[in-house]
Amino acid sequence: MVFVVSTASAQAHSDAETKKDIQRHKAMAAAHEGAAKCLESGKKHEVCEKELQAACKGLGIGKHCGMRHEH
């Protein structure tokens, strides 16, 4: 059997791309931490979700900022 690996998909990110990814992950983590603190403060889920969506605008995919869980 012969396996062919595409070099385009196997290429590593450049240093600049990696730094940009790190910044995005940190920003998304901060947005999720803010959502957790919002819920801890007693605010309704809908309010906290809207705050999360605003904080994640342009960062994550979909309305859950790149993270989805059960409920």
Mind sketching the topology for me?
Layout: H1 7-10, H2 15-40, H3 45-55
Helix pairs in contact: 2-3
Helix and strand run: HHH
Strand content is: under 5%
* Mean pLDDT across all amino acids: 82
Shape: elongated
Q: Kindly state the number of beta strands.
A: 0
Describe the 3D structure.
It is a single chain. The chain contains 3 helices and no strands. It is mainly α. It has a domain at 14-55. Helix 2 runs antiparallel to helix 3. The longest helix has 26 residues, at 15-40. It is elongated. Residues 6-10 have low confidence and may be disordered.
Q: In brief, what are we looking at here?
A:
With 71 residues, the chain is mainly alpha-helical.
Characteristic terms for this protein:
71 residues; mainly alpha; 3 helices; 0% strand
